[in-house]
UniProtKB/TrEMBL annotation:
The keyword Membrane applies. GO terms for cellular component: plasma membrane. Gene3D superfamilies: Nucleotide-binding domain of ferredoxin-NADP reductase (FNR) module, Translation factors. It comes from Leuconostoc inhae. InterPro entries: FAD-bd_8, FAD-bd_FR_type, FNR_nucleotide-bd, RBOH/FRE, Riboflavin_synthase-like_b-brl. This is Oxidoreductase. Keywords: Membrane, Oxidoreductase, Transmembrane, Transmembrane helix. One of its GO terms (molecular function) is oxidoreductase activity.
Amino acid sequence: MLVQRKYLLGLAWMTAIFIIPLPFIQTLNAGLSPIYIGERIPILYGTIAYSWMLLAIYIGTKPKWLDRLIGLPSAYMLHGILSLAAITLAFLHKESVWSSGLIKLTGDWSFDIFIGLSIYSLVFFSGWLTSRVLFLLWIKSQLEHIFKHELSVWLHRLNIVATTLVFIHVLLIPYIRQIKSFMAVFLITTLFVFTTYVISLLPRGRKAKVLTNTQMTPNIHQLQLLTREKLLFSPGDYIFLSFPKISGLKEPHPFSVVNIPNNKNEIVLAIRGDGDFTRMVSGVKQLDLALINGGFGQYQTVINDQKPNRLLLIAGGIGIIPLLSLIDGNASIPINVLYSSHNKENLLYPEKFSEWNNRANFEYTMQVGRFNDDQVLSVLGKNKKNLLVLIGGPTIMGRYWIKKLKKFGLRGSQIYYEEFSW
């Protein structure tokens, strides 16, 4: 399945880069007057940029079908890179095509907004980048108390304002309006994306109420939620959680689910107070109304398609959370767990491990401090065929073990890590 997933991810990139812009390019190129043939290439740059920006907006609505196809982390990576590529093409378009009046103003305003948002997003929404560039991570940590989660989300929505300005910019150009086939593609795709986006802003998901909010460690709270509706998510999934009546918690935030669905329709979350949203969750009270959207994630999908005869779960700190429900939901598969944390108090749910230890096909090692290579090698054993390794934890840890496991002889298709850094 992991080989298939790479194929699907590659297909998604090919579709985004080449297929999505194709109707725009063909219709515009076919109908463009010979008078503007000298500006054809930069005009096409602007057209491609617009198609990519529409796709980036659509990905931002978190379509579930796309999550199950390539995973939201990969989709959000596509979203970010497409946005930056669109801005680059927009710059080439802006510098090469002459315009004046309101046409020029709408183009310039939209470009300025996009530039400002791209800089902001590189710090606050690009975990894949800040996890690699420590200076950006430091800037983010310094500014997070000012640009809180809800404010950041609303600032990011200025992309819609900028895209609307581009839409007006195009409508104001007479020789573009005359190309009926292009205008049909332009209007239909814009209407579809904007309608999808507006729908995504409406309160959606299952209503739930808070049953308990328990402090597990000084910085981790367990939230128990109850919903009347049937829960449609798999072991290892995460949900988007919001509290529509609590200021600062109205915008959805992703959290992995501790438990697997049960007849009681209960959801258990373990939330570490890293940001303003997660810290505010500690103040949520019993019977407070919540909205749940999900599930999202690919851990169980990987297991179902890979059909391994043995699982190795490597977890660090709060990264154990999505793996807990996988242990519960895959009792028939032999499982080894290597679970570490920086301190003893953050080794979560030890009672679950004691219970699972009664299984004949379950083994675990729980320790303070990271595992060394020899410890992991000893668990891997000599027979690595049909072994699947699932990793949960900090980005640096996940990347480290992916690299090491490949050196130990595992294929890339035997390793899956759902990077939670977006």
